[in-house]
């Protein structure tokens, strides 16, 4: 029962974020943006959703992900929260 509640809780938090497609920047690095869909999403869930997608992108190329920079925008509960992750695959 506790395991089901944990899985349900994680699913709800994951559903609270939207992640953009990977963009190639002019310097060759990659960028992905993860956004909160509502004010209930925590910064960690937004960041983790973006990192998960970045890792999957690199894994699909049989490479590893290296985060170069992580920038936050917005105020939790007041403004739309978003996190921009700049990364590279090596």
UniProtKB/TrEMBL annotation:
It comes from the Bacteria. This is Lipoprotein. The lineage of its organism: Bacteria, Pseudomonadati, Pseudomonadota, Betaproteobacteria, Burkholderiales.
């Amino acid at each position: 029962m506790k395991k089901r509640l944990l899985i349900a809780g994680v699913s709800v938090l994951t559903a609270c974020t939207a992640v953009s497609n990977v963009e190639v920047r002019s310097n060759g690095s990659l960028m992905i943006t993860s956004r909160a869909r509502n004010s209930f999403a925590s910064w960690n869930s937004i960041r983790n959703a973006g990192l998960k997608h970045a890792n999957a992108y690199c894994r699909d190329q049989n490479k590893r992900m290296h985060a170069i920079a992580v920038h936050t925008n917005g105020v939790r509960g007041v403004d739309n929260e978003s996190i921009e992750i700049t990364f590279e695959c090596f």
